[in-house]
Amino acid sequence: MPTSMIALNAAATHRELGGHGPRLIHIAPANGFPPEAYVPLAAGLAPFGRILGYRPRPLRVDGDAQPGGTWRDLAADLIADLQAVAHEPVIGIGHSLGGILTLYAAVERPELFRAVALIDPVFFRRRLQVLIWLLRQAGQGYRFPLAQGALRRRDHFASIDEARQRWQGRGVFADFTPAALEGYLSGGLKPHGNGYTLAWPKLWESHIFASSPLDAWRDLRRLQRPLLIIRGTRSELITDSVWRRFRRVAPHATLAEVEAGHMLPMEKPDEVAAIIARWMQGIG
Fold it and tell me: Which end of the chain, N or C, is less packed with Cβ atoms under 10 Å?
C-alpha cells in the first residue's frame, strides 16, 4: 500500500495500514519508529485482516515536551488507545519496544487480545540485566549506550531527500527495503521551520532506551494467549542464550527465526509476514 494512501484516524493514535481479512491486527512499533515503516510487513498480512499501526505517545507529544514515564505507562497508553479503536480482540504484533508494550498489555488485559506475536522483543541476557541494574542503582541509567546513541542522532534536515541520502544504506537503515525506508521517511519526519525534524523526538527515544525494563521475563510467564516469537539471527538483542531461555520460560510459544538483524520487519518484511500468516492460520 503506497504510503501516500495511509489514513490517519481521528484520534491520531493509529494509522490504517490496509487489510481486508477477518481479523483485526494491531502493530506496535520499535522505539523511534513510526507505523509507516511497517507498511511492507502490513502488505504481506493484508489478506488476513484489517491492520492498525500504533502511534505511541512520543509521536503525539509536542516537540518541546520533556520525556517521562515508564514502559508500563506506555503500555497503559496502548491499552486505552486500543480500547478506543478496537471493538473485538486483536492479533497483537509488537516489534522491539512494541513487543514489550504488547506483552504488558496482553497480560494486564488479556480479553483485548486473540493472540500475541513478538518480533525481536526487548529481553536482555542475564549479564546485561545485571549491568543495567547496577547503572541505575548508581543513578547512571542514562549511560546505557543506546540511550547515548539516540541523543547523538541528527534530527533536522533541509528536506526529506536530504534525510533519505543520509540514511539510505547506512546504520540501522542499512538493510531496509526501499519501501520500508520510504515508509520511515513518510512517518518519521515532520515539518519544522524551513525543513524537517524527527517525528519521534530523540529525547524521548533516549529516555525510553534508558528506562528499558528488566521485568519482562515475569510477564512472559504470565501470558495466557497464543504466542509467537520471531528473532533475527543477526540480532544483537536476542542472543542464543536469550533464545534458549525463551524455550524454558515459554514452552508453549511458537519460535521462528529470520536471517536478518534486529530490524527484521523492515529488512525481510515478506518473510516475517509469511511466518505470522502461517501462525495465524494455525491458531484459527
Answer: C
Of residues 32, 155, 24, the one with CA closest to residue 90: 24
- pLDDT, residue 4, reads 33
Q: For the chain, how many residues are written?
A: 284
Strand partners, 23: 49
pLDDT, position 124? 82
pTM for the structure as a whole? 0.92
CA 244, distance to chain mean position in Å, is 22
Closest CA to 54 of 12, 1, 117: 12
168 phi, psi to nearest 5 deg: -60, 120
| Antiparallel, parallel or unpaired: β 14-16 and 195-198 | unpaired
205: closest CA among 139, 158, 142, 114? Answer: 142
Q: How far is CA 213 from the centre of its chain?
A: 15
Taking 70 as the threshold, does the pLDDT of residue 39 lie above it? Answer: yes
Beta-carbon-side half-sphere exposure of residue 188 (alpha carbons within 13 Å): 27
Q: What span, in angstroms and rounded, lies between the C-alpha atoms of 211 and 224?
A: 26
